[in-house]
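Consortium newsletter contribution from the modelling node. Members have asked for a concrete example of what our holo predictions look like. Here is one, prepared for the manganese protoporphyrin IX complex that several groups have been discussing at recent meetings.
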Amino acid sequence: MSEEWRGPIATMRNGWGGRDFPHPAGRRRLLGDLPQGMDPRTPLQNSMARCRDLGPIFEMRFLNRRIVFVQGAALNAELCDESRFGKTLAPAVSNLRMFVGDGLFTAYTDEPNWALAHDLLRPAFTKPAMVTYHDTMNEVADELIERWERADAPVDVSGDLTRLTLETIGRTSFSHSFGSFEREEQDVFVSSMIRALTHGMRRQAIMMMPWGRWVVGRADRRAQAAQSVVDDMVDGIIADRLAADDNHERDLLGLMLHSAHQDTGARLDPLAVRRNVVTFLVAGHETTSGALSFALWFLATHPQVRSRAQAEVDAVLAGEVGGIPSYAAIARLRYVRRVLDEALRLWPTAPAYARTPLRDTVIGEGAGVGAPITMTTDDWALIHLPLLHRDRSVWGEDVERFDPDRFLPEAVRRRPAHSYKPFGTGERACIGRQFALHEAVLVLARLLHRFDFEADPGYELRITERLTLMPEGFTLTPRLRTPSTVSTIDQ
Ligand code: MNH
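And here is the predicted structure:
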């Protein structure tokens, strides 16, 4: 296997000048903080249960490795200072480099392909670009609605929303349809991608076992077989575009293949194009699908929130031709947007990001961590977003309560900066944020307009972790709304 994916993180000592941080109870001398009797497939949720009372910064050790987590908003705000800190790759992310190398998400900021891809692809995420995606987003929503109208059994919410978001990113950015709504089985692209992502996460755990280095080779080969399914499909999309003799920069793929940097004239080489196609196909659908799924879960279990959202949707869409939102209508769906913001507070679907200082520095003065903490360029911290978003000093005592009005403009203004970070921070923050928010508000509005949702009373929220968070086994029964449940006359 090439050296390339073995990013510098593996060699970062993370010694923090010999300082120890609070850790969960029950540490064992050799194994460290591996939880006893907890599900090894859900490390993030385990850490939420065990670490929320450990203060703004804490650590977990696994064998001889340690991960330092930040959950305090004040400390996170400091780590978000771009003049002192930058992104680094958490182990689970650096493991993805064996699949996508220096693609936009997995690149180190000082690798030339990060700035190049960032600058070349930016035009695909401006407001004028969003306007051009809007009709496609509505078309894909039509297909989901049709599917749910026909459903005679509870629908698989995350599965169907994954169809929707994959189809949306495929059509808007690559002019490629996966035909996700035309077949019942899961797309091989999706299943292969999930296998690769899961491997990225588990690889770390395997490597930490005493025999891990021997076992990991086989697991790597299996994951690479999955990855080659993805690569072949992507190479097909690229070859088709090149053969079509279509050299317009009309979508993201066009920009990747045909644009040159305005200052340097540099272009993405073919390997960088493939890595970025895979990056955007994956990053562009998985997290949005999770966000929509969690939002529907909260709507289905909070009838008052749902009626308020439906009242807004009915009022806004009453003024739209055919009840289909125009581009401008999306910005008027303020409450729907708050529902989404609040869903991403409690379950940020990309649940962590890693920061490291640009130069040796001291953090934590006045942040309630005791003596200030020395942090060298060999140290890194993982910002634990579900815990950051439950910092009681910022969100109050009732942090678990689902309340979209936490995102009323005046409430947002009252909160300190950097206390809500579902899209990451700084120059490495999510490039697809506007894309995701536009798509998600549009889809939620259209679903709320058409259906009432009944939660299955026997279902309790379970969450799978595969780098991203996603409700597991969550089904809903969509019922067509009747005129009496629609609060404003539409048509
Ligand atoms: Mn997205 C980076 C969350 C939707 C493409 N994304 C990030 C980061 C977070 C994130 C957090 C920063 C990670 C880090 O610091 O290591 N992203 C989300 C969430 C959603 C989302 C919660 C949906 C909801 N992301 C999207 C969509 C696209 C996309 C949609 C593409 C169309 N995201 C990216 C890319 C990056 C990124 C590409 C890496 C950007 C960079 O490093 O320059």
